[in-house]
Amino acid sequence: MKGYKVFNPDWTCRDFKYAVGQTYEMEGEPICCDRGFHFCTDLKDCFDYYKFDPNNKVAVVEALGAIDTEGDKSCTNKITIVEEITWEEVLRLVNTGKGCSGLCNSGNRNSGDWNSGNRNSGDWNSGNRNSGNYNSGNYNSGNYNSGNYNSGNYNSGNYNSGNYNSGNWNKTSFSSGVFNTEEGKILMFNKPSDWTYRNWLDSKARFLLNQIKHDLLEWVWSENMTDAEKEQHPEHTTTGGYLKILDESECGQKWWDSLSYDDKMVIASLPNFDVKIFEEITGIKAGDI
Hints:
Among the domains are: 2-92, no CATH class; 209-282, no CATH class. The termini are far apart. The chain has helices spanning 43-46, 87-94, 197-201, 204-209, 227-232, 236-239, 248-258, 261-268, 275-282; strands at residues 2-7, 12-13, 16-17, 23-25, 37-39, 57-63, 67-70, 73-76, 78-84, 185-188, 191-196, 217-221, 241-245. The protein is an alpha+beta fold. The radius of gyration is 29 Å and the shape is flat. A four-stranded antiparallel β-sheet has the order 1-6-9-4, with no helix packed on it. A three-stranded antiparallel β-sheet has the order 5-8-7, with no helix packed on it. The model has no long low-confidence stretch (mean pLDDT 89). The relative contact order is 0.07.
């Protein structure tokens, strides 16, 4: 089986020294991540385990013995280091586009990695001429933009110089409108509020709500089990009960019941707080507060 292997600049791998043209053999069956001479059949997979560094050595190898494969890597108990590959050849093999200096690019003239567009200097861009990262739009210098011509981050609109804008031509942040220089107020509990979205992000109420734990476990004793629970968990007769996984609303209610009065009042002091809407969305019965 032919494949590829990456080495340190001194041709070592796991403190073992290799040389081009040499064959190496070991006793016993190969086991991935345990023992054997490791390699990948697809060159780009090698860089999941080695840095994409032009100082490293890369070679074509041939497995001549038994082979064990796990995911994208394989190992053998007998291997030949067939020939060294130049870095120019590495770039050609890992990129389907042209003129790329990054890794796994299907577009052209990319200096970053995993770009499907053209002329990107960042990483994971599907658009064109982006200098940021994770952009699906075009001409973005920020990051995580799905729109175009944005210099900020996380914009789904166009021509924004701020962050988190879904509208256009905004020179502010968190705007869903057009040509705004100031952050707008947001609806809370279905009514206009005097809060901006940034106020919400910085609030203690948001901090507290983010403390709700999910997938909580609770021990239920046999005497407290319903008939349906006893039927589903017949082992309770020997264990004395069963371990229940709480659903989202139960997790939220336990969180609420554990809060101090002052923390509950932080939530209840949110603009336009409505106990019915709060329960409808969270499942939490806030009661009289």
